[in-house]
Amino acid sequence: MTFVVTENCIKCKYTDCVDVCPVDCFHEGPNFLVIDPDECIDCTLCEPECPAQAIFSEDDLPDDQMEFVQINEELSRVWPVLAEKKDQLDDAEEWDGKTGKLTLLER
Ligand code: SF4
Ligand code: F3S
């Protein structure tokens, strides 16, 4: 099992999640973070830290977020590790909770 970052992180990227991860398995892209499934130890610490409630365990993933398993796996191979919190994106609060953000994912 692994934990998975889902759609609501896109264009928010609060990054509170990275501060609690004991194994630095978050990787950062321009407007989204992903979890490396091979590094995640399922500690559960990040899930409650996300203000956008974008992190789920793979087993609890909503049906409409299933494609994010593949997206996390794929992009964690190419994006660099982010190990410390940084400022959220501009307009994060405005985008928090909006649907249909997958088309806005910058790779
Ligand atoms: Fe990191 Fe734990 Fe979250 Fe996995 S569940 S991404 S190990 S904080
Ligand atoms: Fe994204 Fe939530 Fe982390 S918005 S960057 S998964 S704290």
Write structural notes for this entry.
The protein has 107 residues and is of the alpha+beta class. It has a single domain, classed as Alpha-Beta Plaits. Helices cover 18% and strands 11% of the residues. The chain has three helices and four strands. The strands form two sheets. Strands 1-4 form a two-stranded antiparallel sheet. Strands 2-3 form a two-stranded antiparallel ribbon. Strand 2 (26-28) and strand 3 (33-35) form a beta hairpin. The radius of gyration is 12 Å and the shape is globular. The N and C termini lie far apart (25 Å). The relative contact order is 0.32. The mean pLDDT is 98. Residues 3, 20-21, 23, 25, 35, 40-46 line the site of iron/sulfur cluster (SF4).
Give the SSE map:
Blueprint: E1 3-5, H1 16-20, E2 26-28, E3 33-35, E4 55-57, H2 67-76, H3 92-95
Antiparallel strand pairs: 1-4, 2-3
This protein binds iron/sulfur cluster and FE3-S4 cluster.
Iron/sulfur cluster is lined by residues 3, 20-21, 23, 25, 35, 40-46.
Brief write-up:
By secondary structure, this protein is of the alpha+beta class. About 20% of the residues lie in helices and about 10% in strands. It contains 3 helices and 4 strands, in the order E-H-E-E-E-H-H.
The overall number of domains is 1
Cα-to-Cα separation, first versus last residue: 25 Å
How many strand segments?
Answer: 4
Mean pLDDT: 98
Low-pLDDT regions: none
CATH architecture: 2-Layer Sandwich
Quick tags:
107 residues, alpha+beta, Alpha-Beta Plaits, two-stranded antiparallel sheet, 3 helices, 18% helix, globular, binds iron/sulfur cluster, binds FE3-S4 cluster
